[in-house]
Design a protein that fits this description.
Elements (H helix, E strand, L loop, with lengths): L2 H4 L7 H5 L7 E4 L7 H9 L7 E5 L15 E5 L7 H5 L3 E3 L7 H7 L5 E6 L7 E3 L7 H7 L2 E6 L7 E2 L2 E3 L5 E4 L14 H11 L7 E3 L4 H8 L8 E2 L3 E2 L2 H7 L15 E3 L1 E2 L3 H7 L5 E3 L2 H4 L2 H5 L4 E6 L2 E3 L4 E2 L2 E2 L2 E2 L6 H10 L4 E5 L3 E2 L4 E2 L1 E2 L17 E4 L2 E4 L5 H10 L3 H14 L5
Parallel strand pairs: 1-2, 1-5, 2-3, 3-4, 5-7, 7-10, 8-16, 11-12, 11-17, 13-15, 14-16, 17-22, 18-25, 22-26
Antiparallel strand pairs: 6-9, 18-19, 20-21, 23-24, 26-27
């Protein structure tokens, strides 16, 4: 099939396609590395053509230039990223809290989608395009949009699973090849290595893992080469997992669902990772309301989730998204997977956190969370907490026991101060 001839009437420039955005519309943008860069650049360049347009998305990996054009656009962030948190802090953009797995439901019931801007692979011989590196909420936004504008980019990998749309379902096609956004490999220091080593002690042969992105998850992976038949059921993966797959450590043989397949909803990494997932039947991409649904997660026995935090108090309340009143990131999928592991037979959830911030001047384990801080994960949900000083097991422990466990893994410079606060809280004489 010569799709270009058949769909010639849908092929337009970005400028022409974006004219279909009307004042007051809600525009949902494809997520993370799947962000349609060309469409957003043109949108920002033509800002004077719009008024009161709401732009909604999670992680943005570009400059998000539209967000500063407040006379034309209003950004509604579902996750604060490097380029968007400053606009939220200034009060010219908003943040909407949500569990990641419930975002598609928002588009069904609360935040109707007028226009979706997405990026897809080249069509196959049947006219299907793949959402590539980001299926997540992007698929639901595309299906719910009154107008769907898709940037076709030959550099977008064709990922398999529930990741496809047909050209018949797209209203306007913009052909523009550009580099898919890549994420540099993180630098792993001694703190991350130590945390990674402690994490690996809680991971057994045959476990199924959820890992995030960054130095600590990558450090964990470096200590897993002696493990056997690990599985992956994770909202995302990055380059760190490739070596374990290639060495046969990750086989997915012991999973109860998607046996033999790595299950994800999006990825971020290098071109090497994107090339690996291209047409790879061992990697299954599915929407986030399936991948991150706690009940689906819990169908796997021996599920282990590993997530990071900004602060944790002596009761075990976890702040993973704000610095005081300032929104730093978002809820993301942390709670999805922590609760999913609670449904899993022999499931374990782990919060990883360096003991200090500010070059050692600030303790991340605190008597109480900072004023204005969000509670991302409640004390009822927390299981294990790991710093470079050890492992604290909180689930099933009293508040007094939790406090002692956490003080024991705090940085030594802050333990005395923490213990004084602990004694005051629990009215202890010594």
């Amino acid at each position: 099939m010569n799709w270009e001839n058949r769909y010639n009437n849908k092929m337009v420039t970005a400028e022409e396609a974006l004219k279909n955005i009307k004042d007051g519309n809600r525009v949902v943008v494809g997520h993370a590395a799947g962000e349609p860069q060309h469409l957003l650049n043109v949108l920002a360049d033509k800002a004077e053509n719009y008024k009161n347009v709401e732009v909604v998305h999670m992680v943005s990996l570009t400059e998000s230039r539209y967000a500063e054009k407040i006379e034309n656009f209003h950004h509604n962030a579902l996750f604060a990223g490097n380029s968007t948190r400053k606009f939220i802090s200034k009060g010219i953009a908003d943040y909407t809290p949500s569990f990641f797995y419930e975002i598609p439901k928002l588009f069904d019931e609360i935040l109707p989608v007028d226009v979706a801007l997405i990026q897809v692979s080249s069509p196959d011989e049947h006219g299907f395009v793949s959402l590539g590196v980001s299926v997540d909420y992007t698929l639901k936004a595309a299906k719910r949009a009154k107008i769907l504008i898709a940037q076709i980019n030959k550099n977008m990998p064709r990922t398999l699973g529930d990741s496809f749309l047909h050209l018949d379902d797209i209203d306007f096609i913009v052909k523009k090849d550009e580099k898919i956004i890549e994420i540099p490999l993180p630098k792993i220091g001694e703190v991350e290595k130590k945390i990674g080593e402690y994490c690996s002690s809680l991971i057994n042969d045959g476990d199924t893992l959820q890992l995030g992105i960054g130095a600590i998850p990558d450090a964990v992976l470096t200590f897993l080469e002696s493990k056997k038949d690990l599985g992956i059921h994770s909202e995302m993966i990055s380059d760190g997992i490739l070596e374990l797959i290639n060495k046969g450590v990750v086989t997915n043989k012991k999973k109860q669902t998607f046996v033999g397949k790595t299950l994800v909803t999006f990825i971020m990494g290098s071109r090497k990772l994107y090339d690996y997932v291209d047409n790879n039947p061992n990697i299954a991409f599915y929407p986030v309301d399936f991948v991150n649904h706690p009940i689906e997660i819990g169908k796997n026995d021996n599920m282990v989730s590993i997530n990071s935090a900004i602060q944790i108090d002596l009761m075990g309340q976890v702040n993973a998204e704000s610095i005081g009143y300032d929104q730093f990131s978002g809820t993301g999928g942390q709670v999805d997977f922590i609760r999913g592991t609670s449904f899993s037979k022999n499931g374990r959830s782990i919060i990883v956190i360096p003991s200090t911030a500010g070059k050692g001047k600030i303790s991340r384990i605190v008597p109480i969370l900072d004023e204005g801080a969000a509670i991302t994960t409640t004390r009822n949900d927390v299981d294990y907490v790991i710093t470079e000083y050890g492992i604290a097991k909180l689930k099933g422990k009293t508040l007094r026991e939790r406090g002692k466990e956490l003080i024991n893994i705090a940085h030594p410079d802050f333990r005395e101060e923490l213990y004084e606060k602990y004694k005051k809280k629990f009215k202890l004489e010594c």
